[in-house]
Design goal:
The chain has 2 domains: 6-142, 60s Ribosomal Protein L30, Chain: A, CATH 3.30.1330; 157-186, Wheat Germ Agglutinin (Isolectin 2), domain 1 (2-Layer Sandwich). Helices cover 36% and strands 19% of the residues. The protein is built from 7 helices and 9 strands. The protein starts with 5 loop residues before the first helix and ends with a helix. The model has no long low-confidence stretch (mean pLDDT 95). It binds zinc ion (2 copies). One zinc ion (ZN) binds next to helix 7.
C-alpha cells in the first residue's frame, strides 16, 4: 500500500494532466526513491529513466530530479526501469517493474478497445492494484555498478556555419571543414 500523501498524488496527477496506470508506476518508483534515497531538495540525487512514458512525470514531480536541472537522465531503452543515485554516500538502486504484477489485467486489456467502458474499468483497476502493491513486490531491485552520471556542464554556444543558429559546441560536427548543427547535418 502506498505511503504517498493525497497531496503528493494529486500534485503529480495535475502535473501530468491525467491519472493513468503509467503515471501510477512512476508514483511508486518515486516513492521508492523517497524512501531509500531522498529527494533532490535535501540531497544531491540523480535519476536515470529508461523510458519516456507517463511514469517519468511522476518521478520528476516527486523526486525533484528534472531535465532542466540536469539530474534527470533519459536512456531510450524502452524499459519500466528507474535508477536513483545519491552523491553523498553513493547509495543507489535500479528498480524495474515486476513483470508478473498485473499480468492478468494487461492481457485482458489487449482484447478490449482502450476507450470502451470495459477498457476504462480495467485501467482503473490496474491503477488501484498498483497503488495497493507493496513496493518490494512491485519492483525487482538491484544495485547498479556504473559510476554516478556526471553533473551537467555548461558548454559554449557557437553559431552553425549553415543556418547561423547558436548551438552548444558539443552538438556541432565538422562537415567539409564547417561546423554544422545536427539539423543542418541531416538535411
Ligand atoms: Zn498518462
Ligand atoms: Zn544549422
Amino acid at each position: 500500500m502506498t505511503n504517498l500523501t493525497r497531496e503528493q498524488i494529486d500534485g503529480a496527477i495535475s502535473f501530468h494532466g491525467h491519472h493513468c496506470p503509467g503515471l501510477t508506476i512512476g508514483l511508486r518508483a518515486a516513492e521508492f526513491c523517497l524512501r531509500e534515497i531522498g529527494n533532490a531538495k535535501d540531497e544531491e540525487i540523480v535519476a536515470v529513466v529508461e523510458n519516456d512514458m507517463c511514469a517519468v512525470d511522476a518521478v520528476q514531480f516527486l523526486t525533484g530530479c528534472t531535465f532542466g536541472k540536469g539530474n534527470f537522465i533519459f536512456r531510450d531503452y524502452g524499459k519500466a526501469a528507474f535508477t536513483f543515485f545519491r552523491r553523498s554516500d553513493d547509495k543507489r538502486f535500479r528498480i524495474i517493474l515486476n513483470p508478473t504484477l498485473c499480468a492478468d489485467l494487461r492481457s485482458q486489456m489487449e482484447n478490449v478497445p482502450r476507450d470502451s467502458a470495459e477498457g476504462k474499468a480495467l485501467r482503473q483497476k490496474m491503477i488501484e492494484r498498483l497503488m495497493e502493491a507493496e513496493l518490494d513486490e512491485m519492483f525487482n531491485v538491484s544495485i547498479p555498478d556504473e559510476p554516478i552520471p556526471g553533473k551537467a556542464r555548461l558548454h559554449k554556444t557557437i553559431a552553425c556555419a549553415r543556418c547561423g543558429e547558436g548551438t552548444m559546441e558539443t552538438r556541432l560536427s565538422e562537415v567539409n571543414g564547417q561546423l554544422l548543427c545536427r539539423i543542418c547535418t541531416i538535411n
